[in-house]
Design a protein that fits this description.
This is Tripartite tricarboxylate transporter permease. By secondary structure, this protein is mostly helical. It is built from 23 helices and no strands. The chain has one domain (about 1-485).
Length: about 500
Amino acid sequence: MDLLNKLSLGLHVAFAWPQLLAAVAGSLLGLLTGVLHRLRPVTMMALLLPLVPMLDAGVALMLLVGVHCGARYGAAAAMLMTQPAEPGVFGVSPLAAEGQALTRQGRGAAMLRLGAVAGFVAACGGLLLIVALAPPLTELAFRFGAAEVFSLMVLGLVGSAALAGGSLVGSLGMAVLGLLLTQIGRVPQADLLQQGLGVIPLAIGLFAAGEVIINLGRAAQARRERIVPEQVAGQWPTRSDLREAWTAVLRGTLLGSMVGLLPGASTVLAAVSAYGLERRAAAGPVAGAMGPEAARHAAVQTTLLPVLTLGIPASATTALLVAAMTIKGLQAGPLLMTGQPSLFWGLIASIWIGNAVLLAVGLSLAGVWDRLLTISYRRFAVPVLLLCCFGVYLGGGEHAVYLMAVAALMGYVFHKLRTQTAPLLLGFVLGPMMEENLRRALQLADGEWSVFVSRPLSLSLLMAALLLLLLVLLPKIRSRRQTVFREEG
């Protein structure tokens, strides 16, 4: 009964007009982000970050979470295009390949509608897992000491580096660089950096302005066309499609929900695992497309659980959520649920509302996504850059724009070096919290570093981080990682 009361409180908060509009707007912005090629959810969230100080905490978080969840709906539209989708931009390439094969048979819009249903079912499954696990995880988090919290953050940081594309050493180096950047502004220095770097110019520079520069180069080389140019708006899934898809959707929901809970796990891992499962089950093409689609949507919901209960982000998008909470004076983790129950449960309810809106839009507008996909990236590159400059200037003035430009240049250089930048942002966001817990743990242990290995839970978390590194270094897994994982945000 207590849980029902909490859910009722969440619905009451989420259906208030400001929060409801934020949930709907965020979900639609995320959907548009997924449909428009070369835009990622982390890019849109970075663009919205300067609005956070001006909005109510609940409104701001619901807006950002809506983008985080909504982009995965629009990503499935890649199946309508001729070129295979890149992981991290449209989703997982096996999913796109299956969808493109069905689109060539003239069934693209039907599969998009079926994907919207699969995504909604999977999102509901992921949310149910969050509701079930949030109270016990919050209770567990209160039993963590400073040493355990520090070790958990180490595991999350290592996990994010292990699940990024490119060199493992490079990804770990990005995480360390992020930690080092938090020290800027600690001592007197040049005027440009005396107030610290700031998460807003860094995030917008790396993931918005930097992405524009990178993608303009890609747009000059790539040409994307619709596979089936005829009008397909009236297509709907058949009963045969539903019979083939429902077991795959259930399998994908369960698998994706579990994978999303892993430290550093991504929706790419969930979808690729589901695709492999469907192949081993000798499923048909519809199941092969819908299983990974369900896994992606379930995972994107449950990736929020470590942030909401433990305060540990596992991706660039969840790191931006932690940054938004920090800007609003909130502490991500167990104190959010116990100290701000209306905000916590309102956020959960808003996610369900956003997914319901996306289901309705996905069913009604599936036939027009292919037209949006053919829009040239150059048409909205300049407006995105102007929004970047305006948002950063609004939040930090002229010097913040200069910092954003430096961050954009850094992002471009790292891209050329084939090094992912998501671990850098995670390190930057986690840095102050890691330092605080490290200092507190050493103070309580009279400066003895052995405290991190003498406490069983802390030792277990550090051993898990070490084991993850060793597993990734295995030749077979390393080769698979290079093929599958990309920076997703």
